[in-house]
Amino acid sequence: MKIAIFEVKEKDREFFRTYLVGYDLVMTDKTLSKENASECQDADIVSIRSFSQLTADVLTLLPDAKLIASRTTGVDHIDLSYCKDHGIAVSNVPGYGQYTVAEHSFALLLAISRNVIPSVLKAKDKDFSISEIMGFELHGKILGVIGAGSIGRSVIKVANAFGMQVIVNTKDPDESEAVSLGYINVSLEALLTQSDVITLHVPYTSNTHHLIDKESIAKMRTGVVIINTARGAIIDTTALVEGLRSGKIKAAGLDVLEHERDFTHEEHELFSMPNVIITPHNAFNSIEALERILKITVENIASFLRGTPQNVV
User: Fold this and answer.
1) Nearest partner of 167 among 145, 147, 187, 192, judged by Cα
2) pTM of the full predicted structure?
3) Sites in the chain below the pLDDT cut of 50
């Protein structure tokens, strides 16, 4: 049984060696692509992260693959239709970033609300004037949460601690949970029109592609803040830039971009905007979350080999 593991850091290799004893392990820090797929064409199980794009062209070079064990929650980097048609199971790691991504979302929001980055730069220049770095409180503001999965629910709990009012739009609203967590389920249009801050926590699918576009931004309150730690293509970048330019959107905190590997002109403009904070797809990147990813991935592989697969998408 051959297991090929891509995008693996040197420090994580011992973990896989320890918990996947007895298997032929091939590990590399490279992404899986058409150029190197032939090196693992006899692999029974392939494990990747999100930078490996498993299109049909790549998957066809893996004729022996029975399981793609993705070390991510989202699986939009894998051609699921091809996998289904060719009997390849796909597993993911749900919930590993429940706290980590939620905390990063608020790190972005707090950096915006209190002008943390310009404040630090001024202080380093020994400039202690504060007239240009006045912030705003989160207390009492309306937070619109799109998506109430494990990360969205963690965001709601943090928002409650800040004294924010929380409204939620989610695919399967749960009124009993809304009562227990102290939020109100609303339509997407109501969320767009009422929120002071909008934060995105939905997976990227054909239904969520450009969920935030020119039309939806037009419905938002002037001065809205947008936070995205989900997937870049949930937001139409052109519409976002226009909204920021016009002042309709006060600021944006982005951990993901629509074209992270090949920036467009609009994305280059985002980098130069003083009211935009961009982090390098780093929301998941905590010690605890990475440990959970490794543990759950090994459990996914082991359960598949036992004939009782788990976390299959």
Assistant:
1) 145
2) 0.90
3) none
